[in-house]
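Help! Submission page says 'invalid entity' but I think these are all valid:
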Amino acid sequence: MSGCGFLSRGAAALAAAATAVRASRVPRIFTGTHRRLHTSLQSCSFAKELFLGNIEQKGVFPFPEISQDELSEINQFVGPVERFFTEEVDSRKIDQEGKIPVDTLEKLKSLGLFGIQVPEEYGGLGLSNTMYARLGEIISMDGSITVTLAAHQAIGLKGIILVGNEEQKAKYLPKLASGEHIAAFCLTEPASGSDAASIQTRATLSEDKKYFILNGSKVWITNGGLASIFTVFAKTEVVDSDGSIKDKITAFIVERDFGGVTNGKPEEKLGIRGSNTCEVHFENTRVPVENVLGEVGGGFKVAMNILNSGRFSMGSVVAGMLKKLIELTAEYACTRKQFNRNLSEFGLIQEKFALMAQKAYVMESMTYLTAGMLDQPGFPDCSIEAAMVKVFSSEAAWQCVSEALQILGGSGYMKDYPYERFLRDSRILLIFEGTNEILRLFIALTGLQHAGRILTSRIKELKRGNVTVVMESIGRKLRDSLGRTVDLGLTGNLGVVHPSLGTIVEEQLVLKRVANILINLYGMTAVLSRASRSIRIGLPNHDHEVLLANMFCVEAYFQNLFSLSQLDKFAPENMDDQIKKVSQQILEKRAYICAHPLNRTS
Amino acid sequence: MAELRALVAVKRVIDFAVKIRVKPDKSGVVTDGVKHSMNPFCEIAVEEAVRLKEKKLVKEVIAVSCGPSQCQETIRTALAMGADRGIHVEVPAAQAESLGPLQVARVLAKLAEKEKVDLVFLGKQAIDDDCNQTGQMTAGLLDWPQGTFASQLTLEGDKIKVEREIDGGLETLRLKLPSVVTADLRLNEPRYATLPNIMKAKKKKIEVIKPGDLGVDLTSKVSVISVEEPPQRLAGVKVETTEDLVAKLKEVGRI
């Protein structure tokens, strides 16, 4: 029962608030040509149900498994790719020269890595999300290559796979899968980053209604200089259902050959320096109407779906990198001696290894749990779960790479070693593909919207004096407290959402805490599910997994308790009012305003 | 267009990059959960056979491996590199431990006759046991000429010219077909099995047969008594002058 129904007044505020960050609520659209968006008919409901205090076990236990055939197939793929990256990719050179050598790109193409998820009938490998995540673990050895490949297939051409019609797929996918053409995703503009809905690039229908004329500038486009096929988002005039003319975003497939497409010089970046990032300008580019991707006016949802579909793989990419780092730093820690003892004997060093192993375990578990959900038939939309994976893994990456560098001490700081490059390459993970700030708001608001909708309908029933609903709610509460499910503190008597949450969208600090709690819960679920399976089937080293899982759960539990106590507006742990005051005073003067400690008054 | 057919034998071994560890009971090395891959010299052999096929000098390349079910992965890699079909001579894991060059040679000889091939390719040796015997024994059992340690191969009608790398330098032989060739390092540089080719290889057939079907007896007269790590390398000694060096060498009885 998806959310295209009507909402009551009480939850309208919540819903209106969440539309600013909408993504997963996508109504089915049928057109004359029967183009269907591949999005939530069926949503992963695990995360959303957590907001109601329910743990939907059937969605997450047992941990997803693949068949022996699929496993040996993936292992067959892993071999050559791993070999290629170890023997033939010189990451240091790529970073120093700021580009990926042409013959490395050619070899990547011939290996088939440019069309991993393109369906086989269009010349790709047609691999599942799980297999894509597995390959991501190896490709992560080089950050620039990872980002170049991801920009090409996880977002650049993904729109054609998700919402393209047969003609578009047949025309563009084969050459994109082979790498003959490279794709890029063009959404961001100088004045529109997180606020993607505010883009200003325009596409106007020509007189003869056969073309759209595209004008505008996009910024920070990965592969902008290499690509010949662009997925471009622009504002178009649409006649709304009530007859008014509105500006809505439409997605287009734009070929460089259409003319008027130019790109700026490659940007000099902190990290992922081998990937090509530049401005892309469209000047009176003529785009045939056949190249509209999805519906005219439906571009925003297309953009969100594309971004949501590739996001989860960041978890396995980072896990692959962390596993490599653990190997490299362990080698060092076990051989380097200070004070006549190996570094590996010191507690503060041991702690770092425990941290890296734990984070890698959690993000592996979250990624493959999410990938398993996504590989269910029916293209379920797990955008909240994917967002949680992205936030967790990007922040864990930054933290763990820093700790790994620290193990090496001074050497870690030197360019002779790869750690500083890993650090620089990982910083972007918190920024692109949706900043972690935006994703936290998205996680919290989408979940609250869902909870609000369900709970509001229950309130209506209760107000009508529907006895069965009352009994059910009470019974549920009893069962919950007996079954000890999580109480997010958002509910009062009889499960009513607190009226003060009407303006929730403005309370970012509150939303951040809600999101953090959810991310921890999802992580805990993932590790418990995975560890249980490992014990059940007797995988090697499952005792170690139990250690990691329990460690994480205890840590997350206490973090959640603290976040929960902070959620109470009047709790001493809650510094929100002070934070607001401090920032107001600083931003008013745009400077630090304290008097210098040495100053005197006489 | 030649009607030649080639049989390539491939062996699944512990990957060259893995740090080998001896089992505590000294019965062998740890293989559980350890990364395995195709023996590098076997890869070179497969590559050579596939190149001959691409030059249209060979019509069909058959990949064969003896051992437990995991061998099929290795055969699949050969198929992904370009072999046409595979034969898996199934040997249960316990018995596979005692498979030596003579047993494998017997299997290959029978297969070469059964499949009526003109060329049998092998790697010169496997990196796990370093035996360097299987190719030679196969040729002996078949009574075919052999060109071992091949670093260059040229097909000349019904003969092949093989350039061999031997301790003294390079030796060139001309062999009448059918013959056995073992590949050395510099014969070629094997291609990567690309992911699209791995997927195409899924459609190629692997026939599973038992050694008994070929009438081969796998009993071995060799048994492994113990496997141990090599002794730890001791630190060296620095000497100041040549006289000291000579004195030290005399001390340890080296001169």
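Support: the input was valid. A stray whitespace character was the problem, and the output above is from the cleaned input. Confidence is low (pLDDT under 50) at residues 1-41, 483-497 of chain A.
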